From TrEMBL:
This is Cytochrome P450. One of its GO terms (molecular function) is monooxygenase activity. The keyword Chaperone does not apply. Belongs to the cytochrome P450 family. InterPro entries: Cyt_P450, Cyt_P450_B, Cyt_P450_CS, Cyt_P450_sf. Keywords: Heme, Iron, Metal-binding, Monooxygenase, Oxidoreductase. PANTHER family: BIOTIN BIOSYNTHESIS CYTOCHROME P450 (PTHR46696:SF4), P450, PUTATIVE (EUROFUNG)-RELATED (PTHR46696).
Length: 402
């Protein structure tokens, strides 16, 4: 039988910045304890799942629910709670299915393919400006303006409001991250109220004068409540900005750290699509999601009690040695990359086709026009988020191809 001190010694201790400076070291330590481990690494205790097979199983099994990330017991943050409760990301079963089917109408492969000319034009325009500069920040000068314009165009947001979207998205992302502080929640709660008012008045405008955009489409369909509409738009603002910015920035960063792979891509530009899949696996923009067990069950021989929380470490599953050869290597020539970076099952990312298209065009055009590039600051800073792999900034200088 274990003594108390032996049990304590078995607990994995987390340094404050383990999860965002180098989450892969933590994942390794967790994996040494098995594919699923019970502990108190984050504020709320739960099961930490690092195995690919187990993560995929939980994502696909509807008896594990998603739920809003706020502590249910608190009376505070009512605006934020209200908005999160109507986001499809935190809905389950029939409520989720209904809203998802509706919003899907704006994200069909045909509609997304229709954005290709716009994305190509914006990427070209941005690169024209950036490659002649002495240095620039990949995150705020390249990735952000591209993704921001695309999601604002899809939604049909007024041009003058687009700039403010970045700050909104960044704050709201923090509010759904597991590292959120009370200060963040307070600020997000206030923002949630402002955003509800903003989108309410935009809905009135679009109702009077519909355009060729998602907000107008969903209003015309008239199949969901105004609260659901507002929460959906806010979710799309966060998802459309944050994750894809990180995918593009993580791509440029991964090649910077692996110049031999940059050479491979330069010699064979048709690998751009595979390269994006490898970045998704290797530096997944979303590292972590969570589920709650709705009944007593078993995962990898461990008993899970109804109501317990499970943290699915997508970034760890993507490096499971049982599934990927040389999992800690960045290799763009992999032909099979069944990563879990967009999730699986009912909540599989609604924007995956769009994110892939934006990132592939960004990388293809960047690699066509840039011969080599270097980082201008020695230190790379990751944003202090536990669920997302997000660079604070990435300043580079480029040498052009001709
Ligand atoms: C590289 C970029 C992206 C990554 C890595 C990513 C990742 C994910 C993941 C892991 C989930 C599932 C979460 C869970 O099951 O708990 C998800 C859901 C979702 N994503 Fe993305 N996403 C990306 C881009 C986008 C974009 C561009 C959009 C929209 C414009 C988007 C919209 C959504 C929505 C609406 C959901 C919720 C789907 C549902 O609950 O049915 N995502 N995303």
């Amino acid at each position: 039988m274990n003594t108390v001190s032996q049990t304590k010694a078995k607990q994995i201790r987390l340094k404050r910045d383990d999860l965002f400076k180098n989450p892969y070291g933590l994942y390794k330590r967790l994996r040494e304890r098995g594919s699923i481990y019970k502990g108190s690494i984050l504020k709320q205790p739960g099961w930490f799942v690092t195995g690919y097979k187990e993560t995929a199983h939980i994502l696909k099994d509807p008896s594990f629910f998603t739920r809003i990330p706020l502590p249910e017991s608190t009376e505070k943050y009512s605006h934020l709670k209200q908005i999160q409760s109507k986001m499809m990301l935190y809905m389950n079963q029939e409520d989720h299915r209904k809203l998802r089917l509706l919003v899907n109408k704006g994200f069909t492969p045909k509609q997304i393919a229709g954005f290709r000319p716009l994305i190509e034009e914006v990427v070209d325009f941005l690169l024209d400006e950036l490659i002649v500069k002495e240095e620039f920040d990949v995150v705020s000068d390249f990735a952000f303006p591209l993704t921001s314009l695309v999601i604002a165009t899809i939604l049909g947001v007024l041009e003058e409001d687009r700039e403010t979207f970045r700050d909104w998205a960044a704050l709201l992302l923090q509010s759904i991250d597991f590292s959120r502080s009370h200060k963040t929640l307070e600020a997000s709660d206030q923002l949630a109220e402002e955003l509800s008012e903003y989108f309410s008045s935009l809905i009135v405008k679009k109702r009077a004068e519909p355009g060729d955009d998602l907000i107008s489409l969903l209003i015309i369909e008239n199949d969901c409540t105004e609260d659901e509409l507002i929460s959906t738009f806010i979710l799309l603002v966060i998802a459309g900005h944050e994750t894809t910015v990180n995918l593009i920035s993580n791509t440029i960063h991964s090649f910077l750290k692996h110049p031999e792979q940059w050479e491979v891509l330069k010699r064979n530009p048709s690998l751009a699509g595979y390269a994006i899949e490898e970045v998704l696996r290797f530096e997944s923009p979303t590292q972590l999601t969570a589920r709650v067990a709705m009944k007593d069950t078993e995962v990898a021989g461990k008993h899970i009690t109804c109501g317990e929380q499970l943290y699915l470490m997508l970034g760890a599953a993507n490096r499971d040695p049982d599934v990927f050869d040389e999992p800690d290597e960045f290799l763009i020539t992999r032909k099979q990359v069944p990563h879990l970076s967009f999730g699986l099952g009912a909540h599989f990312c609604l924007g995956s086709t769009l994110a892939r298209l934006e990132a592939q065009i960004a990388l293809s055009q960047f690699s066509k026009r840039v011969h080599t590039y270097n980082q201008t600051k020695a230190e790379i800073k990751w944003r202090p988020l536990t669920g997302f792999r997000a660079l604070e900034e990435l300043r580079i200088t480029v040498q052009t191809s001709n």
